[in-house]
Amino acid sequence: MTEFIVNQWWLVAIVIASLIPLVMRIVSAGLLETLRTLDRRWIFLLLLWAVLIPIYFIGVTGRTFPEVPSVLARATFDEIDRLNPGDPILLAFDYDPPSEGELGPMATAFVYHAASKKLRMYFMALWPLGAQMIDNTIAKVITPDFRDLVYGRDYINLGFKSGQEGVIKVVVTNLRELYTTDSRGTAMQDIPMMEGITNIQQMKVIVSVSAGYPGTKEWVQYAVTPFPSLRLVAGATGVQAPLLYPYVPRQLPGLLGAIKGAAEYEKLVVDAYGGANADPKYLEALRRMGPQLVAHLLIITLIVVANVVFLIDRGRKR
Amino acid sequence: MSSSLKGKGSAKRSIAAAVACAALFFPALAAGQAPAPPSGLTARDHSWDNGTRIDLQWTASADEATLRGYVVRRRSTVETNFSVVDIVPAGTNALTVGSLNREAGHLFRVTALGANSLESTPAATTAPVFPTMEWFDGTRVWFLFTLVLLCGSVVAFIVLARRGMPLTLRRIAGLEAVDDAVGRATEMGRPCLFIPGINDMNEIQTIAGLTILSRVAKTAAEYDAKLEVPTSKSLVMTAARETMQTAFLTAGRPEAYNPDSVYYVTDEQFGYVAYVQGLMVREKPAACFYMGSFFAESLILAETGNAIGAIQIAGTAQPAQLPFFVAACDYTLIGEEFFAASAYLSGEPDQLGSLKGQDVGKLLVGAGILLGVLGATAAALTGSAFIESLVNFFTGTMLT
Amino acid sequence: MKQTGPLLITAAGGFVLIVAYFIPFAQNWGELAAIWFDILAAVAFILGGGNLLKTHLKRISDRARGWGYSGVVVVSFLATLFVGLVKVGVNPSAQFPDFAWSGQYRQMGSAFWYLFQYAFTPLTATMFSLLAFYIASAAFRAFRAKNVEAVLLLGTAFIILLGRTFAGVALTSWIDPDVWAGFAYFTGLRLENLTVYIMSVFNTAGNRAIMIGIALGIVATSLKVLLGIDRSYLGKD
Question: Which domains does chain B have, with CATH numbers?
């Protein structure tokens, strides 16, 4: 840490310089008055540093915080890890670029896990931009690192279909009623891995990575509820995850909540399949836990400071 | 493959016991002898369903006590191979197989699965059985009962309210503040902003939002305040225009209605947010209303509104966004309050009656939760099979 | 008449779909209706696009405040529409190599793909990331220990905030699960375990209560719409 500060003295200088006006205001107007009337832009600046510095620190040093996988992350991992090579798995990517930062790492980890296990991967999306997220993840994981996997034999992108939960209702009993071609326009009968696949119930596990509606909740309601033998695991944003807890564990055996859940799952996957020098792209969530820690600590500090001011003011009024 | 269990005994209990017994008392079986097969397998169409289920029944294997369970397999007349439908625990002698194709006949096989994982010879059906579709789906009868009960109570209270039954309503501060907010904007000479959420007209929250828009627009027309409604969906724009026009007409100022004040921005969530945020910073509306279905944009919009010093009233039924609105807005209509708004604002007996009906629904749900919790607790404490079967019927049949 | 027609369609459509839910023969009618709505909504895109152009071109011609932004909107809209429709930079698909436009509009390397990858994605991600800044400022302003409930809320927030990071693990690492193996209640006090407990028990209970209220509200509102009691979203007769 000291070495980092010494080597990156210019960064320390910029941070200190940016906060000088705030310090001067505290000196001139007093600490309490400054905090009472604190312009929200100072909070924005503090948060910027709280996020930026750890990102830079982790980028320079390559160090991440140790992560202890929770029960839910382990359950998610086990659901996929118990499968045998060649087992079909559905990966529903129902998110878009705005939530990529939160969901991208878990999508990457899911695909890395499934590809390492040599599972047959069927990708689909209920969000228009989900198809692009699928392409991006395939280009990030399968194309460079799993060159032996062949499109159409080992993995397929069924693409986006409009109709929200209506799509789930149909594909769960009849996949080909809606999907006559894959996202590249190839007819289903010409795709080797579609042979014998008539509906989603044939999938050993459904993985839902979702940022909202339609997403995991709809997969629970319209796929798992009418067909309880289906196994569903999910990755959700921090805002969505609390709404999914009611479904755990009966309808949703595994759930990854936000970047924390992704980091725990990432650790399990990398420990099992990544080797000693895993590519940094498979450690994205673990790396993002650093900024998250500092940002959370800053928010706690801000709340505490605001409450101290509040209590002092209330004490004076009395 | 969907299937539901009928029969005695629970899965986990039976499997554990069977495996233990097999290892201790039946060394011959553990050594590699297949168990005795089940017999008398019958398959019948499941009555009162949508033509996707067949009921199976069989007589237990002679080695029942040592079994891990029974493996049920199926093939349709157009398929050549049997595939596993389900593995049910020992002690089970019936299974309803679901998700079957109505167009084809189905053949079934059931084998006994020994503790040593060896399977017996199968008991099989000889003739294909076709699932038939009845005119009523009996699996949804309890849902129908609940629906009739809930809707019936709403309709009953609407009728009672029409007959003059006095109904009182608690004060909802957020709705009381609507007129004040518009009034304040008028005094300050600044516009009002109404955001009807980012979902389309097929979302009931959007309709509830437009109901509140009609009141806001009416007040704005009366006060001669400028009201702007950027929408994220084209159909919402059309519906919001109709609502605004009607509201201005009701207020007696149809000439003041400007259709250009309701306009489409973009379907893209954050493109919409960027536009609205920019609009707020430039125009500095004095009153902002967020009424509809919101997602991640809730706090971005509400904090921007807070920064420009606007009075903010929000209403949504998206539970995840409620904390953000509560933190950043002056008033928030939480869930059902949001849906109660039209009744509250109109004060019409029909509308108020519907709220009372909703309360009956809440009482029913509360009673259901209480009964379920008490039943499950009693079953766990006493170990009574009767109470357990009642609880299972309640949760497994009535509530599914 | 202007209101009666839509009301009749709403009531007939709504009640038929409710009844259809219980009649196997008609159970897929709901999905059909959803597809009809999708078609309507897709056609409405044209309406929306037209309105977008009208609104912003008017602002430009009026030189209204911020008309420059409207210029950016119009240019971006038309440029994206053009490269998407004409499939600029798209190679023919492998199946139909003789047809110039047979490739996908969002094919990797196409103009549309570049716009999506290097303009749309970072722009929307930037907007989303603003949320973090607003959460910090809202927390600073709104989280006050005004009463007992607020203090409880604050305490819970701290536990969750810490429990979702390594700080939570580090702070309560002294509760060693191996040492306290027989004391599940005590090891449950580790912040990461407490976080999961709060989320899955207290949070779920509260959420369910709100969701039950919302579900009943939806039933009553839908019924009012179907019965024509609530018609404020429709125009005047």
Answer: 3-136 (2.60.40.10), 139-165+351-398 (no CATH), 173-347 (3.40.50)
